[in-house]
Amino acid sequence: MDFLLGGCAATCAGFFSNPFDVIKTRQQLHGELLQRTGQSVASPAGAATTTTNPYSSVVRSFRSILRSEGVLGLQKGLVSALAFQFAMNSVRLGIYQTAENCEWTRGDTPAATLLRSIVWGGLSGVVGSTVACPLYMVKTQIQARSHGKYAVGYQHRHTSTLDALSGIYRTHGIRGLWRGYPGIVTRTAVGSSAQLATFSTCKDLFAQFDWARESVAITAFAASMVSGFFTCVFMSPFDVIATRLFNQGVDAQGRGLLYRSVVDCFTKTLRAEGLHGLYKGFVPNYWRIAPHTILNLTFWDQFKAWRDLYYG
Q1: Higher-confidence position of 230 and 244
Q2: Element at 60 (helix H, strand E)
Q3: Global confidence as pTM
């Protein structure tokens, strides 16, 4: 039941955080492998080459998407995004909750508890992302698709989530659905460890104060805001890498046109765009993660409360 509740909670939260996910994806792909001077390092067929930036800030990104695609553009890739949230978090939160129920995340000291939380957070993230990898790839490719000067990265021509999954499978087989898998595993392991460990630690820390003990909601909000920041700091470079690995075009053998591996993507991005390139989309990523964490864990707690009420 914990697995199902975790997936349902993340799906509900994903509906509200998806617009920031779309903006984050566009910002991460804009100027891909372009030198800061504007000189192109690589420009394969099908990739957008514009050097103007319609996604230079969160506000401008909202305006650009509304202008080019309307309100529905802010919820681009919603079906695959919600499917990913359910598949990944039902496994991730289910495993982590099981570990907490069995007290495997608790140590003899606060430092030992933090370390165990990091390990179980990372492990649960790895398993969850392994299951949901194809959905993350499709979500990324659909969210990146636009037209004209608003197009960024390689432009895939999927018409729906099912069309994308079936098309990739027909062309590249089962391996094609897990292309870029090392990118999402690294991303989710780091992000999940940071998120769950800092959230649990912050809740324990805030519990020492009267204002926190008087309101569970305020405690969750404060812990989520702090957790979201640290999650973004540690995860953002790997999030950029995962986005680019999944969105890049492939040749007839299913090999990436730009990147061969996580390390190759990291070094090429750092060489061409500097540290700034590895932190593209940081602000919308934070405003995606922090509210998503609040909503996700709030829904999760509420669903568990209903379960305990009706099933004892």
Answers
A1: 244
A2: helix 58-69
A3: 0.83
Residue 130 in this model has a pLDDT that exceeds 50 = yes
Return the higher-pLDDT residue of 67 and 195.
Answer: 67
Distance, in Å, from the CA atom of 290 to the CA atom of 24, rounded to the nearest integer, reads: 14
Q: Which residue has the tokens 């359910």?
A: 86
Look up residue 241 and give its amino acid: I
Task: Answer yes or no: are the C-beta atoms of 54 and 60 closer than 8 Å.
Answer: yes
Rounded Cα distance, 80 and 137, in Å: 9
Burial 217-231 (b: 16+ CB within 10 A, else e): eebbbbbbbbbbebb
Residues 6+ apart with CB under 8 A from 133: 177, 178, 180, 181, 184
Look up residue 67 and give its two tokens.
Answer: 């202008």
Q: What is the share, in percent, of the chain residues with pLDDT greater than 70?
A: 87
pLDDT by residue (tens digit) across 291-312? Answer: 777 776 666 666 666 777 777 5
Question: What are the φ/ψ torsions at residue 219 (nearest 5 degrees)?
Answer: -60, -45
CA distances 140 to 16, 100, 156, 309, Å, are 17, 32, 10, 38
